[in-house]
Write a structure and sequence with these properties.
Layout (H helix, E strand, L loop, with lengths): L3 H14 L17 H24 L9 H18 L4 H6 L8 H17 L3 H27 L12 H21 L4 H21 L2 H21 L3 H24 L22 H12 L12 H7 L18 H30 L5 H17 L7 H19 L8 H40 L7 H11 L7 H7 L2 H5 L6 H21 L4 H13 L3 H14 L4 H13 L3 H14 L4 H13 L11 H7 L3 H9 L3 H14 L4 H13 L3 H14 L4 H17 L10
Helix pairs in contact: 1-2, 1-5, 1-6, 2-5, 2-16, 3-5, 3-13, 5-15, 6-7, 6-8, 7-8, 7-9, 7-14, 7-15, 9-10, 9-14, 11-12, 11-13, 13-14, 16-17, 18-20, 21-22, 21-23, 22-23, 23-24, 23-25, 24-25, 25-27, 28-29, 29-30, 30-31
Length: 718
């Protein structure tokens, strides 16, 4: 028992140190704002869990209590685990990817974090130190945000890497300062500190300028105002509630009134609200609801939304992000990943939290309003965004705090045999195994990042040395490392003269080998096959690339960019008819997409389907007429007269266009009318006198070419 107080102090210290996780950055790893935050958090939780296991054996008061809140949360986490195990890609659902690191393993760590906070933080001082430490850390976020602005960065990254995530972190700390003010302000200096911290985080929110966070804060203010108005008997408090409601109504009405005004684009704080209703998220939500119909009860598993996104892809999203892996809505995400089984747990969890806060008659009105305001903010902003570890840590802090203030003195502790089983078997085994896995994963990521950066051209002369070490000594991250290795360095590597040919061959051989494994072991996704096709195309294996693109198209029939990639390969293979049919299909979904129009223009000529050229938008068609590959297509298919006709039609409306005049001259010369070609060049000189020297060279070339050879017309068809 003498050791228990020392273990407790160390454990409280570790749990408090977790507030530093959001500011961890390691630029020596891929995704520097993500990876080491997650590795550090997992290590701290696993270390704390082993100490907690020892402590709960020595002193039963530090064992978990049976409570409705913890049981509902446990149900939610277990439901996520079950539905992910039965989902589309269980391995990805468990471990996620380098870019996100939000698989079930993260949810499990967050649940243990919640349980430990509720079991170990037994008095107000523990919570006070946690809150004060976290608010001090939040000043670092403000400082780095200001530094971003001073360096001319429009959308601040601060220490989290994304303006929305920075704004979420700051908004959470506004509410945390409120909790400190109403529950842990022992003197006026504490109140000054909490007020300054709240103000600092408000400034950070303004700098980050996120619409979803703004809307969440507005709704939180409205909820607080209504709560104060309806539940308080004090006139002064009721007036504060009325003031909050009025402020929300006025500000919200003002935004709705001006959001379509062009001038607000020039106001930094307001420009994000310009036409905020025109948002691709609405289309993504529609895709999510469609995909939900396939697996309504168990969902697709964590991190598998991209499968749904590809299967029911909306072609109108082509100008936005191509590989959406989140529906940007907490409720749709839960339904897609965990189905109705998990969604019921989510609703029960937050429903119970609101019930506890509203029923807690002994809670001070200020504290109650801040806590309810926070959870309203969380549920509203997550209708448009998603949280990362930098905010999930503190969301679990708030849930644990509700558990602390409500369950204190209620329920009963785990029996001693259960505590012994947890302390001696479950916690040590899982923690040590998890630590070992994370260590190996991080080590591999570090070496992997070194070779990626050198291959991408930052230090190309070191590439062959690092590649040799990487290939021979480092564990290859098959599940997602191969894809990144194909995507990021291949162009710089394959076409970099500084890279020895032997290393290029070794790189190609390795990727080919690893992709064979991936295609056998990993469930099919459009992204895998698209990247596979892109790589094969770059290494000259056109037929295999075409095969990969055909699978990608089958998985996502309406993804326009996949059709364009596939068309490039078909054209190189001379399969003009198939290329034309592919593009026609895409054109029927989104006829105004520029790259699709350009490909269709070229393919129409090569496949002799020129009747479709006039259906293209005039800017695209006229831009294509000056491109060398378009010109060669007309020449190779013996359709130069049509090329000249199209140019002549365009020049009727824009007779001074120099590129089109020069190309028209070329067309007349190719069909055996050199004199007209020379007249066109003379016309170009009249419009553009500075072109005279170049024009004389062209005229000389035309006359010389007519002396050497004449244009041969194609034989008449029998």
């Amino acid at each position: 028992m003498k050791a228990a107080p020392y273990i407790l102090k160390i454990l409280i210290g570790i749990l408090t140190i977790t507030v530093f996780v959001p500011v961890i950055i390691n630029k020596h790893l891929m995704f520097p704002y993500i990876t080491d935050k997650n590795f550090a958090f997992r290590f701290l939780i696993e270390l704390a869990a082993m100490l907690w296991g020892t402590l709960m054996v020595l002193d039963k008061t530090y064992r978990p209590k049976f409570s409705y809140l913890s049981l509902v949360y446990l149900y939610y986490v277990l439901a996520l685990g079950l539905t992910s195990a039965l989902g589309y890609d269980p391995f990805k659902s468990m471990w996620s990817t380098m870019e996100r690191m939000e698989g079930w393993i993260t949810h499990a760590h967050l649940f243990v974090y919640f349980i430990m906070l509720g079991s170990v933080f037994k008095n107000a001082k523990n919570w006070q130190y946690y809150i004060q430490t976290s608010l001090v850390v939040s000043f670092l976020m403000l400082g780095t945000g200001i530094a971003d602005k001073l360096n001319g960065i429009e959308t601040i990254r601060a220490l989290i890497g994304n303006q929305t995530f920075v704004a979420t972190y700051a908004a959470i700390h506004i509410f945390m300062a409120g909790v400190g003010w109403f529950r842990h302000a022992a003197n006026k200096y504490h109140k000054i500190f909490y007020a300054v911290a709240a103000l600092a985080n408000i400034v950070t929110v303004i700098l980050a300028n996120s619409r979803g966070i703004f809307l969440g804060l507005v709704c939180a203010g409205l909820a607080i105002g209504v709560l104060l108005l309806l539940t308080s008997s004090r006139e002064k408090v009721r007036k504060v509630g009325i003031g909050l409601i009025a402020a929300v109504v006025i500000s919200g009405s003002g935004i709705l009134a001006i959001h379509k005004q062009v001038w607000i684009k020039d106001v930094p704080v307001l420009k994000r609200f310009y036409k905020f209703t025109d948002n691709p998220r609405l289309r993504i939500w529609k895709v999510s609801l469609t995909g939900l119909k396939d697996r309504p009860f168990l969902g697709w598993g964590i991190e598998n939304f991209q499968v749904v996104f590809d299967k029911y892809y909306d072609p109108l999203l082509v100008n936005d992000e191509e590989w959406f892996d989140r529906p940007h809505n907490l409720y749709l995400r839960t339904l897609i990943e965990g189905g109705l089984v998990t969604f019921a747990g989510l609703i029960a969890l937050f429903g119970l939290i609101f019930w506890i806060l509203l029923r807690g008659d002994d809670f001070p009105i200020g504290f109650k309003s801040v806590m309810i305001g926070f959870f309203v903010f969380f549920l509203v902003h997550n209708m448009f965004n998603f949280d990362t570890l930098a905010s999930l840590i503190f969301i679990n802090f708030f849930i644990a705090y509700v558990h602390y203030v409500w369950e204190k003195g209620r329920g009963f502790y785990f029996p001693r045999p259960v505590a012994l089983g947890l302390a001696l078997v479950v916690i040590p085994v899982t923690s040590v195994a998890s630590m070992k896995v994370h260590h190996e994963e991080r080590k591999s990521l570090y070496n992997f990042t070194k070779v990626i950066l050198s291959a991408m051209g930052r230090k190309p002369r070191y590439f062959h040395e690092r590649a040799k070490y990487f290939f021979e000594n480092t564990y290859f991250l098959r599940r997602y490392g191969t894809l990144v290795f194909m995507l990021n360095p291949q162009r710089n590597l394959l076409y970099n003269k500084n890279v020895p040919a032997a290393d290029k061959r070794r790189y190609t051989k390795l990727v080919l080998k690893e992709m064979e494994y991936i295609l056998k072991e990993i469930p099919k996704t459009t992204r895998i096959y698209t990247l596979w096709g892109f790589f094969l195309n770059n290494v000259g294996q056109k037929e295999r690339a075409l095969e990969a693109y055909r699978v990608a198209k089958k998985l996502s029939p309406q993804k326009i960019k996949t059709i364009i990639y596939m068309t490039d390969v078909l054209l190189k293979l001379g399969k003009y008819e198939e290329a034309y049919q592919n593009l026609k299909e895409g054109f029927s979904w989104f006829p105004n997409y520029g790259p699709l129009n350009k490909h269709l223009a070229l393919t129409s000529v090569l496949s002799r389907k020129t009747h479709d050229l006039l259906k293209l938008s005039p800017p695209v068609l006229m831009g294509a007429l000056t491109q060398p590959n378009f010109q060669r297509a007309f020449l190779n298919t013996r359709q130069v007269p049509l090329y000249g006709k199209l140019l002549a039609e365009y020049l009727k409306t824009n007779p001074r266009s120099l590129p089109h005049l020069v190309n028209l001259s070329w067309a007349y010369n190719m069909v055996g009318q050199p004199e007209i070609a020379i007249k066109v060049i003379d016309q170009a000189v009249r419009y553009h006198p500075n072109y005279k020297t170049k024009a004389s060279q062209i005229v000389s070339a035309i006359r010389q070419s007519q002396k050497n050879k004449a244009f041969k017309r194609p034989p008449k068809k029998k």
